[in-house]
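Quick one, T. Sequence first:
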Amino acid sequence: FGLTGDGFLYTWEHAPLRTLPIAYRHDGFSLFFEEPPMTWESLLEGYVAPLAGTNATISVWGLGPGSVFCYDTKVGEVFGEGLSQEQLGMLREGDRWVHENVMGLIRSGNDPLRVAAERGRELGLKTLARLEMNHEYGPASEDNWLWVGLVGRFNKEHPEYRIGGRSVLLDFKHKQLRDFKLAIFREALEAGSDGISADFAVYPPFFAEPAAGTPIMTGFIRDVRALLDEFGAQQGRRLELMVRVPARNANELGLDWQTWMREGLIDYIVPTHYRPNETFDIRVEEFVALGRKTGVMVYPCIWQVLGFVSTDQHPEDEKTGNRRYDKPKTEEMFFAQALLFHRAGADGLQLGFSEDQWRKRPYLNDLAEPEKVLYANKHYMVDVLPHCPITFEASGGRPPTPVERTVPLRLGDDVAEARARGYRVEAELVLYATPLHEGERVEIFVNGQGPAVVAGAEPGAEAEGDGAPVDPRRIGDKIFEKEWWRRGERHVQMDAGWWRLGENEIRLVYRGAQADAAVPFSITWVDLLLRYQGPR
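Structure tokens:
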């Protein structure tokens, strides 16, 4: 049990489990990454029709890659519109396909946003038009293909609206910027959207001075609500507003989501990561608690990747053949995050993807159903921020004094209950660490139980790959090594009964014979694998 800042009681692990609706998000850009010509029938068959009859009840339809758009806009410009052949040639082949496909659909009278909203209604889906609130690609240079292709005239013609310094992000203190965003929203509603999704996770900051900007942004949200109510009055229904905000520091960015909820300005709030590679366990309890008081629905976000590396291709990669690799987000990770959100009492889930994954990953629909989530295999990660890498500076004494570090890991799984229901549960901790030499060992205690031991120079103790793991904050060219993230991988079996529902304490004790080692022993990531068999 716990209390939120306003004294409202919440429970985490005691939240009732129920099937949750899914808001499925398309980025509004990569879905057009196919060789032209795209037809409106293939667009709907690929990206709207598959949601029918599933747990997905909301289609979050991206308007484009930031400040250029992939619908029939007059306020802004369609992606690629107005670029010279030389400028188009700077882009990736897939980008040129996007331009051709979107323009072809518009010229044929089939605005992608309009046809998606119309078909969605026929299938019982709400379509919320999603705008990335500050997606601008710097630096502002004509030899930067991202700036040339994915940044619109509004930014290019008004450098005075930028936050300043080296940033090309725009400052919402300028009324002209807020009016521009409202005009885009108006076009989306005129095209038939059932509401708006304002994505403030893409990308902070929004103000040079967030404290001064907080009332300005709240005023902007009131204006969006008024716009929705204007269209809703004409249609005899409420048009809905969804906002996506970083869960851990939204207020510091000038996003007063508590006021937005209390004033009934929004209908859905989507707490999410600040950066995807920092936090595996996104804490949403305070959002859920306030949602219970205000009626605002809480749909925490499950993101598509871990995000240590951007795997987006660059134009030059088409010639070099280079491909970037990230530590993969496994199916079991999706189930682990989903169960954490079920336990938190979420009202729904938002799934965020940039390409066609709904049909490729049928298990995504299962994330909404607790009976399919509870005893699915899981893959948890200790949060990188603030816990990793974990470094052990050996003492200079003889013999060296053991060095201890403790990190937390919260689980949605109840191993004791699963065993009581007849399931066999296995647990394996995976460490990605620098090499352990002869005489070195790590003892692992979980909630005071243990130890499980990994030692240097013993059979089975050798790590996968060669050398030390790559610090994900200083990856460099290792992104081209397919399994760079597996460097230093060690698997440690342990009793699953050591783990419990809720908060767990992992105590790591390093005993090192090489106190004078030039490189201290460190652990880049700590992962937990839970595997279920049964019930018997």
